[in-house]
Amino acid sequence: MGKLLILAVFAVLLSVVAYTLLDVCDKMGVFRKLDPVKPGKCNLIKGIEYGSEDISILPGGLALVSSGLKYPLMPNFAGDQPGQILLVDLNQPVLKAVQLRISRGFDVESFNPHGLSTYIDEDDTVYVFVVNHPQKRTTVEIFEFEEEQNSLLHLKTIQHELLHSVNDIVALGSDRFYATNDHYFAQEHLQALEFFIGLSWCNVVYYSPSEVKEVATGFRLANGINVSPDGRYIYIAETFARKIHIMEINLNNTLTPVKVVHLETIPDNLEVDPKTGDVWVGCCPNSWKIFFYQPENGLGSEVIKIENILSENPKVTQVYLNNDSVLQGSSVAIAYEGKLLIGTIFHKALHCDLNNS
Ligand SMILES: *[C@@H]1O[C@H](CO)[C@@H](O)[C@H](O)[C@H]1NC(C)=O
Ligand SMILES: *[C@@H]1O[C@H](CO)[C@@H](O)[C@H](O)[C@H]1NC(C)=O
Questions:
Q1: What percent of the chain is predicted at pLDDT more than 70?
Q2: Which domains does the chain have, with CATH numbers?
Q3: Residues framing ligand 1 (Cβ under 6 A)
Q4: Rounded Cα gap, residues 343 and 346, in angstroms
Q5: Which of 82, 181, 220, 277 has the most beta carbons within 10 angstroms of its beta carbon?
Q6: What predicted TM-score, i.e. pTM, was given to this entire model?
C-alpha cells in the first residue's frame, strides 16, 4: 500500500512537471513552424545595432527609439556603452538614426532604456517617458524633447515601490501614466522560477503625483501597453498567455476588463495608429531561442496588425515574419505613411514598404 502511494504521488508530480515544461515550451514557440511573410521591400535602418526595443512616432514623422537595453538573460552587443534614445526622421529617403543628447545633470552612464511613450500637451510640448533600469532598479524618466537642439531635457525621475519591474508605459498626461510590471518578484532567482512555472502574477499600475495604485493583475508577463486614439481604452499585451487585453478607463483611473484578443504568437509592445486605431504588435515568434542565442540562427521577428480591435470580430493579419536572422527578436512595430518600422530587443531595426495594406 505504502509503495503504491509513493508511486502514485511520484506519477502525479512527474505529470505536473512534464505539463509545466511542455506548456512553457509551447508558450515560447518551440513547436511553431515559421513561414516567412514580407509586406514589400525591406531595408535595415542605418545606425541601429544594439536594439530598438520601443518606438514612438511623433505626428510629423520623427521616430524616437529606445536602444541598448541590458536585461537579465538577454544578449546585449553594446558592451559597456550605455543605452540611448535615437531619432529617425521618416521623411528622409534613406533612414538613419542619430543619437539624442541628454541634458546635463542626468546620469547617462547608467542609462538603460526600455519602454517609451510620448505625450504632447496643448502647448505642443513633447514629453518623452522612458522606463529606465539603472543598476538593475526601475525608474521612469520624464524628458522634454527639444527638436531644434536634437536633445532631451531631463525633467524628472520617478521611483515607487509599485513600479518595481516596469517593462512599458503609456503616458496620459505630462506627469501621469499606466505601467506594466513584467515580473512579480524582485529577486532574480525568484523571477526565473516565476517564469518557468508560469505564474500569472504580473500587474498594471496607475501613477500620478497624487495617487499610485495597482489597477489590474493576473498577467503571465505583462508587457506592451497603449491607449486607444479616443483615450477611453487601455490595451495590454500578456506575453506568455499570447493575449491582448482591452480594458476601459474609469473616471477614478481604475480599469474594467472589456475583452481579450487571442493571438497565435508572442506579443511584446503595442502601437496604435492615431488615425485608424489599428493596433500593431511586435512579436517574437520563437522567444525560447533567447536562452540558446546563436547569431547566425537567431530569433525570428513577426508583426501582427489588429483592425477593429473593439468590434465583435477584430481582424488579425500577419504582416511580417522572418526566420533568417536578418532582424532578430522584434519587440515593436508601427506604420507611418505606407512604411512599416520594426524594432528589436537587442538587434537592429527594419523598415518595409506596405504595398498592399
Ligand atoms: C524558415 O523558413 C524556411 C523557408 O524560407 C522554411 O523552409 C523553414 O521550415 C522555416 N523554419 C522554421 C523553423 O519554421
Ligand atoms: C472606480 O470606478 C469604477 C467604475 O465607476 C467603480 O466600479 C469602482 O468601484 C471605483 N473604485 C474606487 C476605488 O472608487
A1: 99
A2: 26-356 (2.120.10.30)
A3: 33-34, 36, 323
A4: 9
A5: 181
A6: 0.94
